[in-house]
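ARCHIVE CARD
CATEGORY: sequence design from structure
SOURCE FIELD: tokenized fold
FIELD CONTENT:
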């Protein structure tokens, strides 16, 4: 059995945060490494976000911490999100790990910044790591309380 978190740790440590964006609701997306421009447009006519070599999606509940405080999170005033997202750009990945009995994801960045998932709704924690570097897209998340992957979708 492959250690998928180690796969993402090895791939991502040292990469810079290239883009951070908000998806539907409070979904958070972080793109690492070289960006690939998106093709097409959303239904509302706006441009799609670019994709990094490695990506992280946290669907509902997340928080961004600095060395001493929670800077903002999915439950914070949305006015804090954009300036906090901007503070992550250019920071380098120091570690990728999970924590908790039901695995939550934690991305540690340079200058003692951290991004953590922490689900507060029923079911599994809803986060996904994407590895888009090869011919096949690799996705890893939490399913039935364990780290799982789904391979085979074209990158």
């Amino acid at each position: 059995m492959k250690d998928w978190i180690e796969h993402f740790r090895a791939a991502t440590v040292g990469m810079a945060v290239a883009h951070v964006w908000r998806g539907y609701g409070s979904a958070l997306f972080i793109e690492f490494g070289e960006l690939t421009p998106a093709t097409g447009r959303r239904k509302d006519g706006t441009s799609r976000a670019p994709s990094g070599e490695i990506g992280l999606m946290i669907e509902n509940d997340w928080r961004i911490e600095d060395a001493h405080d929670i800077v903002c999170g999915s439950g914070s005033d949305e006015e804090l999100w954009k300036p906090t997202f901007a503070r992550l750009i250019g920071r380098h990945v120091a570690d990728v790990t999970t924590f908790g009995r039901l695995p939550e994801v934690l991305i540690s960045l340079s200058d003692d910044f951290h991004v953590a998932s922490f689900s507060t709704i029923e079911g599994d924690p809803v986060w996904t790591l994407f590895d888009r570097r090869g011919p096949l897209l690799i996705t890893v998340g939490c399913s039935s309380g364990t780290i799982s992957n789904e391979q085979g979708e074209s990158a």
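CARD ANNOTATION: The longest helix spans residues 4-12. Residues 124 and 143 are 6 Å apart (CA to CA).
SHELF: design records, drawer C
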